[in-house]
Amino acid sequence: MDREWMRERLSGFEQTAAQYWSVRYANHDTTQEERWLFEDEPTIVKILRHLSPHRPDLQVLGEDEWSGLTIDLKEVSRGKGILADMDQWATRFAPEAPSLPADRLHAWVWDAARTFWESAHYRAAVHAAATSINAHLQNKLGRRDLSDAKLVQEAFSDKAPEAGKPRLRIPGDQTDPGVQTRQRGALQLGQGAYFALRNPAAHETGDLGEQEALEQLATFSVVARLIDRCHVMT
User: Against a cut of 0.70, is the pTM above it?
Assistant: First the structure.
């Protein structure tokens, strides 16, 4: 919908109407002004009916037995008012969107990312969060021989623990299919976060946008909560 074009057409109609009344009050011939008004009328009416679809019979020009041509500029003014406020309606009447306060992300994520975030180094903030989770996972498992995606793979493996290879387990009955599904999901989510988010943050140049970086931190926050809630099997 071309709002600017509609504004221009309505304003032009108002100007033509003002010129018509000026000529008419001076007792001059208004033939030219009337022709312009009637040429514009179909488009003006279409615009106004589009803006007020509940009023399909809306008109702006008419004939009076005593005064001749009548012009309803109130409808034109109403249409211009609608156009002026439509942008605000879209914003003001939009449903309330949920917000994601960064300081309520998992502490492993936000505590590591905060300094970089506050200085608008968003890619570095994501990298710091991923590094922090890796360090906490290493501490939880007592392993320093692996890191990042490989460490996540070993941690959430459905294999039984081995000497020097403890595992993480989602809380619950390990024979329950739902628990087993969450276990596989945690493995895939954790590996995906490191492959798709941490590696680019570590090796690519150029910064991330603020929104994209916040979404990536939120992903790592989910990974961190899963790791934090799991118990260790040795």
Answer: no
